[in-house]
Amino acid sequence: MAIQRMDNVLIVVEDLDAVIAFLVELGMELEGKGPLDWPGAERVIGLEDVRQDIAMLRVPNGHGRVELARFHRPAAIAPEPREAPANTLGLRRIMFAVDDIEDVTARLLAIGGELVGEIVQYENIYRLCYVRGPEGIVIGLAEQL
Description:
- The protein is of the alpha+beta class and 145 residues long.
- 19% of the residues lie in helices and 35% in strands.
- The strands form two sheets. Strands 5, 6, 7, 8 and 9 form a five-stranded mixed beta sheet that branches. A four-stranded mixed beta sheet has the order 1-4-3-2, covered by helices on one side.
């Protein structure tokens, strides 16, 4: 049996609307947003008495999604340091292929994103950069040359 696809990546956030706005500006499409009212969720994630709101966003071509969760109960636990450097263990960024890295970066910076380093070129293949968004979420951008 083989993996069929990567369905989604979950990011736990405090400000659901701010992260949705950032990802929509990136070019993702909001599929839905609301409270998670599925009793099986507690059994899947191994927590009891869970109350959360979720949002699902998809890449326009439909080949990837990001799920956002805002926990009301139990309270989310913040990592330290809040804006962890690239060599910190764990999930560090989500990379997206884009048509125009300059345009996407400018739009994200205009709504409060922060360029982590600089836009660089990898050989004659890609232009790459990282942009830090709300809650320290790092988005990688890759423009194929």
